[in-house]
Amino acid sequence: PRFFNTLKLATLGTLIAMGMGIGVGVIAALKRNTAVDSIAMTTAILGISTPVFLLAIILIEIFSIKLHLLPTTPLGEEAELKHLVLPSLTLGLIGVASIARMTRASMLEVLHQEYIRTAYAYGFESHKVLFKYALRNALIPVVTVSGLIFGYLLAGAVITETVFAYPGLGRLIVESIFARDYTVVQVGLLFTSFVFAIVNTAIDVIYAIINPKVRLR
Questions:
Q1: How do residues 74-89 score in pLDDT, each as one tens digit?
Q2: What is the pLDDT of residue 155?
Q3: Is 172:161 a contact under the CB 8 Å cutoff?
């Protein structure tokens, strides 16, 4: 049960990070060397530099204490959707910065390729060139970063789960350390290592789906 709680948290956090990060990265690449680009990258740097516990406390202060919109902690071992919003948003916002920076760099490299200029020369629509050709080829390094973020979150977002008293795998390992239950700690770490290896294997499969050139004969 603890693992499935962490799985839900990691999945939502990664989806938030990818959705926001790719969007910010593409906009920054298209608006290169403008105020929009500077604001986006400065925000990304602040996102990377912000401690997880500080961001979690800020979100609790805004959405739970001030606005009374979301609960802070689950009441028991089962986490409902409303209990996932704040911790997954915390993890997602931290991951946005890395994905946005990688997307921007990858998009800038792809947009200067000859096949992109050829597509524009043939009169293809701008949105078709951007999303069908440029973004698809720029996603490979982004998928790598996203997969690493997902694997890290599956391995236990210890600080986030502790701040929100979330009944996940990371908090279970922390509780086991304090209780000197070394068997649970060892099995938990072994299990998370196995899951991380599975995630990396899945990333290789996704490569072939995104870019057919990397498929093996």
A1: 655 555 677 788 888 8
A2: 66
A3: no
- 7: buried, middle or exposed (CB in 10 Å: 19+, 13-18, 0-12)? middle
List of residues 6+ apart from 201 with CB closer than 8 A: none
Mean pLDDT in order along the chain per 10 residues (217 residues):
84 88 85 83 79 87 84 64 83 84 85 79 77 77 82 75 84 89 89 83 77 63
CA-nearest of 131, 94, 111, 69 to 13 is: 94
> Under a CB-based contact definition with an 8 Å cutoff, are residues 185 and 98 in contact?
no
Tokens of 85: 């919003």
Tokens 């973020």 belong to 149
Max CA pair span of the chain: 67
Q: What is the per-residue pLDDT for 171?
A: 85
pTM above 0.85, yes or no: no
Cα 175 to the center of its chain, rounded Å: 26
| Average pLDDT taken over every residue of the chain | 81
Cα separation of 211 and 206, whole Å?
A: 9
Task: Please calculate the CA angle 117-143-191 and round it to the nearest 5 degrees.
Answer: 170
Rg (C-alpha) for the chain, rounded Å, is: 20
- 102, exposed or middle or buried, with CB in 10 Å at 0-12, 13-18, 19+? buried
